[in-house]
Amino acid sequence: MNQRACSSPDIWSEANAQSDLAAQLPPANWPNREHSRIVDTGTRWHVQRAGSGPGILLLHGTGSSAHAWEGVFEGLAQTHDVLALDLPGHGFTSPLPSGRMHLDGISSALANLLRHIEFTPEIIVGHSAGAAIALHLSLHEIRQPVAVIGINAALQPFGGPLAGLFAPLAKTMTLLPLLPRVIAHRARDAAVVRRMLESTGSRLPAEKVDWYRQLLCRSGHVAATLRMMADWNLRTLLDEIGPIAARTHLVVATEDQAVPPSPAAMVKQRYPAVSVHQLDGLGHLANEERPELILDYIALVEQQEVTRGH
Questions:
Q1: CATH number, domain at 155?
Q2: Rounded distance, CA 225 to CA 87, Å?
């Protein structure tokens, strides 16, 4: 880990704050870095793509990046054309214009990227807020996929690794323009980042904690997270998913402290065709704790959908 990436004194400078918002390739030690490239569609996206076969799109949650799919990406690339990316303003992707970090804006920008690189996913897997984006994308922007898999899906009030710490601050961000840089400064302390992640019910090894620390000490990443929280609105999403309910698969982790399993049960009650799969003993970041279990479930869903003739 490059400690200077988060501890250099010029983290408070305006030049640093501006460069922090620019799309760039991740550092050499970043997960799956050999598959990284920048794609310019007006938004400059950091994407990772590997393998061949049916297309699978991986969407991380707020405050995270494509690194969250490290083990899942590697496994899927053995048999699939897999695409992971950093959402706008997150990780190493440039931000959207002000006021566009809502569900419609992110989904529209993402659909534009998929058309640009000619990628049509057969399966979309989304974690937390990424699950909401996956559903919205499937309903409004692209050809409906064979399956949408939501892992600890944030389909009601906003949830995610940063929600408990930052959500109360999101609405006031515009009044406190230095706030992202203050939070980034605090995130230089690995113990702070570890406590934040553990508050979601997940425990990650030191290397994975450090990937989050490298993200969170970048003020542009923090600012995008806060903007996404401030602009997030899911008022109509649950009213719309009926047409793809039978293709919707929700994974819930029993120890998730950010998005508890109960909302998935309510979705199941409303749409009986939705399937719900429980992972015992894991927290909100289940895809990072036990990627092999997520790989097994994706394979199971894919086989079920093939059997059903989708």
A1: 3.40.50.1820
A2: 10
For 26-80, what is each residue's pLDDT tens digit? 999 999 999 999 999 999 999 999 999 999 999 999 999 999 999 999 999 999 9
φ/ψ (deg, to 5) at 182: -65, -45
- The residue among 157, 199, 224, 197 whose CA lies nearest residue 288 is 197
Q: What is the DSSP string of 44-59?
A: EEEEEEE--SSEEEEE
d(CA 160, CA 153): 9
> In the chain, what's the furthest Cα-to-Cα distance?
58
Question: Could you list the residue range(s) of the whole structural domain that residue 304 is in?
Answer: 4-8+24-308
Other Cβ atoms closer than 10 A to 281: 11
Amino acid identity of residue 149, one-letter, is: I
Q: Is the whole-model pTM more than 0.85?
A: yes
Residue 91, by phi and psi: left (phi above 0), alpha (psi -120 to 50) or beta? left
Amino acid sitting at position 282: L
Query: What Cα–Cα distance (Å) separates residue 280 from each residue in 32, 65, 86, 202, 251?
Result: 28, 25, 28, 12, 11
First CA to last CA distance, the chain: 44
Residue 2 region, left (φ>0) first, then alpha (ψ -120 to 50), else beta? Answer: beta
**Domains contained in the chain, number:** 1
38 has which bridge partners? 46
Name the token pair of 184.
Answer: 């980034």
pLDDT tens, 89-119? Answer: 999 999 998 778 889 999 999 999 999 999 9
Look at residues 79, 73, 64 and name the one whose alpha carbon lies nearest to residue 131. Answer: 64
Structural domain includes residue 16 = no
